[in-house]
């Protein structure tokens, strides 16, 4: 009976449409978290969920930094205009 539930859950997961952008970071984080959770007391599922969340957040942060760096390279800061000339 347990095998039937596992197969049913896997079919439901794979039947859902998934966008590649939503899974970025989640896949690798989920694998690492699942393995760590398994070795830390047989909590592989909880580790996978936590790893997925952490991996997605890390990827989101890295993409924001990359976007900012790219924007700064494309539009370098201009020097501030000089103030009014001082008269003697």
From TrEMBL:
Residues 78-88 have a biased composition (Pro residues). Keywords: Membrane, Signal, Transmembrane, Transmembrane helix. Residues 64-76 have a biased composition (Basic and acidic residues). The chain crosses the membrane at residues 39-59. Residues 1-23 form the signal peptide. It comes from the Bacteria. Residues 64-88 are annotated as: Disordered. This is Glycine zipper 2TM domain-containing protein.
């Amino acid at each position: 009976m347990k095998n039937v539930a596992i197969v049913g859950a896997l079919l439901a997961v794979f039947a859902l449409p998934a966008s590649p952008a939503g899974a970025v970071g989640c896949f690798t984080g989920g694998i690492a978290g699942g393995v760590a959770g398994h070795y830390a007391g047989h909590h592989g599922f909880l580790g996978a969920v936590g790893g997925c969340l952490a991996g997605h957040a890390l990827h989101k942060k890295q993409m924001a930094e990359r976007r900012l760096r790219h924007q700064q390279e494309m539009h370098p800061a201009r020097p501030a205009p000089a103030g009014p000339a001082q008269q003697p």
